[in-house]
Amino acid sequence: MSEEPPDVLVVVGAGGMGQAIARRCGSGRQLLLADIDRELLDAAAAALTAQGQSVAVEPVDVTSHEAVRRLAGCAASLGPVRYLAHTAGLSQAQASAEAILKVDLSGAAFAIEEFGKVIAPGGAGLVIASMAARFLARVDSKQRAQLLRTQADDLAGLPFARAGQFANGALAYGFAKLAVTIRVQAACAAWARRGARINSISPGVIATPMGATELESDSAPMIRAMIGQSPAGRTGTPEDVAAAAEFLFSPQASFITGTDLLVDGGVTAALATGDLDLTAS
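Given the sequence above, the corresponding structure tokens read:
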């Protein structure tokens, strides 16, 4: 009898959160790690392999729908695609509003759509959003409906989703991440027809290379206020996000789908109650 292939965990984005999820959730599974940065991809794969993981790598530009489609096909060729963690993203300190929308919105939408076609029964996916979606973005009911129903390829053409509509990269980032949570809701039923679940995670300030870049930007005073005045009183770690991912992937979360989990140390709650005042930053 031929041996059944192991479950496949796909991690898109080989940065701090992606690597932490791979370390925590990849044991005993076939890991497929994907990123546009080949040097980062190879270094992450080598580190994970040295820790006993079974790792395949695939370069991918998430802004290309065809590239994401090929990645999903590659994953399916390795075995049953049971888990997807889409962590690829750009922040306002790293890129223009246009690039942020291409990667953080369109790229995530392509992954949600294409992996929804190959996810195995009992599988689960998650997409990294951001707490910024809670206080840097608003959409009205008509815009929400369009974000729910528009095909992934057409999202960039929505008038309110064009780069020129945003005064700065931070607003584009917040909008893109809010749109991601809406796209997760939109995909929930399609994933359910395959016997699978999908959710998003909205991290707060996390100690990653991206987070370090933010602390060197013009937003640094606001970010430091978020850390110092939050209920947790500390910066989050990639392991905090990986722990949440492990839970959402697990059978213990079998009744959780189509939702967004805040992993922000209480920042959003503190803003809502007035315990955190960013206008003073």
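Residues 8-267 form a domain with the Rossmann fold fold (CATH 3.40.50.720). Try to locate this feature in the token string yourself.
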